[in-house]
Amino acid sequence: MVFPTAMLFAEYVNSKGTLTVTLQIPKDYGDCVLSVKNDLTLIKCPPIIYQAELLGLSIMSVTCSNLESTSDDTLSCCFKATRTKRFVDSRNLSINMAQFLVDSDELLCKFCQNTFAKTKEVKSFNALSPTFSLEDNTLMVEESHFCHPKHPDEENQGFHVQLSKPVFNPECVTHSSAAYTGTEVILSPALQEAGCFKEQAGKYIHCSRCLMAVGQKVNVGASDQYALWTNCLDVLTEERDIDGDFLRFVEKPLQDEMDFYGLFISGLIDNQCYRVIISAITWHGCIDFMLLWLIDQELDLYSASLPRLPPSHEQTYEVNSSESSKLEKSEPAEPPTVSLKLEPTACRRVFYRIVLPTEGDTQEQSHTLLKSWRHDFGVTLVCLPWETCIGLATCLQQFTSRIAPQFRVADRRLSGFTCGAVPTVNWSSEQC
């Protein structure tokens, strides 16, 4: 028989200096006591004591507030806390990507290894801000864009986009130089392999072999260039031994998927895009996939399951009648202690709502909200490959599972949205 496991959730918001601790304890654990002492979170249950250390935080135990029980098995409270150590990935993604590109011989399709461009002759890759800001400031829906098939008679409406264009020097993109933003690599058409792309609606670029969406055409100066999404690319590089002798060619992903999602959301917020419609690009057109409501809030998430008392720690006593009276007068044995060290995950909060056609009332509600966002000049439209949309939704849902249950579903103005997050990433660049 499988019994439910207790869970500990903690959320630290640096801008507020607050730590919210949530304890989810099944009833069969018995009555439990939650306390904080010497920066340790103590959970005392009848058979066991859990001692959790939230790494990187100094907790002020006398500042407990907002104590509430959201359900029969959930207890939550807040503390004042300060960060003593920042657990952020120290990698500079800009430097890492630049090195990958400079060392590459070819750019390949991630999905089928079709060769897109020979990059060995490219002398320099110039770093730009991590954003999809090369889009036009006002995008109208393409004829190939379709929404929910349940409403075929509805006319396509215009989406208005607020994406600021950075100062961009067209000389950054030539036959011997290229640019990258973290989410895109911008290449001159002179570098591409003949017949490697197929265009859709005169804008979106698909791999000619597998037909996966891999990029889009953008205007740089007076000419069109090709912007390829970094999470859709592999690089072909030489592998050498310790003496520098050539061993083989190897294929490596240009960028990790989770890093891509972090840079993507960061770029939207940097451009003050707080409400976003994400549309998925397919070979047959674009389909509305997800709504994002962004707030510029970074946080550290802690979560852990609280294991039940292992059988090796269960204490049994065999005593005879003459010893029983002595045992009754003795002090009870101290319950075993399980020590946990929880390392935080640095992330950025994201509220999301999937709007793909589904059965039920939520489809109508999503369509109504989507229609109102279409007429709002403050809403941004971004089109991404179908596979990227699926991956982004999966990333958000994984972070949702690490957030305390009572905070997963938004209310009030954000009713219908789910709270998730993307990783916080380190990116620094100088524009060309």
Architecture overview:
The chain has 432 residues and is mostly beta strands. The protein has a domain at 93-145 and 158-257. The chain contains five helices and 25 strands. The strands form four sheets. Strands 1, 2, 6, 7, 11, 20, 21, 23, 24 and 25 form a ten-stranded mixed beta sheet that branches. A seven-stranded mixed beta sheet has the order 10-12-13-17-16-15-14, with helices on one face. Strand 3 (33-37) and strand 4 form a beta hairpin. The longest helix is centred in the C-terminal third of the chain and has 15 residues, at 386-400.
List keywords for this structure.
432 residues, 5 helices
Quick summary:
This protein is mainly beta and 432 residues long.
Task: Please give the structural blueprint.
Blueprint: E1 6-13, E2 18-24, E3 33-37, E4 40-45, E5 48-54, E6 57-71, E7 74-83, H1 93-103, E8 104-109, E9 115-118, E10 124-127, E11 145-146, E12 177-180, E13 184-187, E14 197-200, E15 204-207, E16 213-220, E17 223-229, E18 233-240, E19 246-253, H2 257-270, E20 275-282, E21 285-306, H3 321-329, E22 337-342, E23 345-354, H4 361-374, E24 379-385, H5 386-400, E25 418-423
Parallel strand pairs: 5-22, 10-12, 11-21, 20-24
Antiparallel strand pairs: 1-2, 1-21, 2-7, 3-4, 4-5, 6-7, 8-9, 8-18, 12-13, 13-17, 14-15, 15-16, 16-17, 18-19, 20-21, 21-23, 23-25
Region (Disordered): 312-338
Pfam family, one: HECT_2
Organism: Opisthorchis felineus
